[in-house]
Amino acid sequence: MTARVLxxxxxxxxxxxxxxxxxxGSTPVFIAGCNSDQFALKKSAADRNYVIPxxxxxxxxxxxxxxxxxxxxxLILPTVDADVADLSRARRQLQRQLFLPNAALLETCxxxxxxxxxxxxxxxxxxxxxxxxxxxxxxxxxKRLKGRPVWCRVRTGAGALGALPVRxxxxxxxxxRYWNEMRGIPVDAFTLSEFLPGRDFGCQSxxxxxxxxxxxxxERLSYLGTGSRPAEISSVAALAxxxxxxxxxxxxxxxxxxLDPRASGVFSIDxxxxxxxxxxxxxxxxxxxxxxxxxxxxxxxxxxAALFVRLAAGERIALRQTYDAVDDxxxxxxxxxxxxxxxxxxxxxxxxxxxxxxRSHDVKGRRKAHGKLHRQPIDEIRSHLHQDRGYRQExxxxxxxxxxxxxxxxx
Length: 411
Known about the structure:
Elements: E1 3-7, H1 13-23, E2 29-35, H2 38-41, E3 48-51, H3 60-71, E4 75-77, H4 81-89, H5 91-94, H6 103-109, H7 112-121, E5 129-131, H8 138-144, E6 150-154, E7 164-166, H9 169-183, E8 190-194, E9 200-208, E10 211-223, E11 237-242, H10 246-259, E12 265-273, E13 279-286, H11 293-297, H12 304-312, E14 329-334, E15 337-343, E16 367-369, E17 372-374, H13 378-385, H14 393-410
Parallel strand pairs: 1-2, 1-4, 2-3
Antiparallel strand pairs: 5-8, 6-7, 6-8, 9-10, 9-12, 10-11, 11-14, 12-13, 14-15, 16-17
């Protein structure tokens, strides 16, 4: 039987990525898309698209109901936080097409300070964080936070909105004042917290009635668009790797269980290691899939997006292992191109090493040794991938120059 779903904010990257994941599942799926932006709809990967009024319009719910009836939609999937909140408020009219966490949990998670405060109160690792009620409070907060730099960010929104590491109270005040004057962000929308210097993780999990159904993890190795960001950090990874890390799973599982012992739906959680190397929850996006969901759906034993549709339909699912961890799978993302998910063994497919003689390769890019063709060992490929975890172009350029100079000196 074909599953029939409706994606909100159709045409944006999270919506198109989710459509790709759903089509990769074992169950046939019909995808409708909707958006109030008719231009964005021209980029939509849905099978059929609808322009609708913005969420604040009195006919918004009526328009969604019209699509549900016309296309026999079984499930509405929000793809951004604003859509999650809007659909949650429309539960009474759309209840049969929704599979969302409870309204109180969603409200807590959409305020990053509120969710961190809740987790820390229950002994779950999260960064020490203080709200900025007024600019005069900044110096006092700096005294309470021991390490430097301090992490400054807006307590709502996505994409590391208003995020910046700052070393002095004046830097923090100037940054907050700038966003207030130029972008209209209120001063009391900001928080200051301890800076987390370690590894950066993402975790996505599916729940029903308080039972964990499936959980997956990955690590961000580099970030998209950091050249134009003062923080050089983003929530969107340019290069990511699927990882197995039970510490991350334990923290995320505890976080969801404490937020709601009867939790249902999808939870996308961001974490970073603190100075002691412990993964700390920095935010929880409840009710929607991560824009990086392809690495969870196209690698591993289970397609998380496709499984979610089955859960929402009421199918009873009991997997042998709730933690679907895989090794050596990577995802590359860039502007104006779909994410590329690949195994480490594919890293040198159709790629030749220009530092070596062309005669040492065949036309398909495989190395020749003693008259025989062979591919590079996995361990050697891993070393190439991890030589520069920062993935900085200047480091790559410097490395190339050094290797060429070394080879020239041997000629």
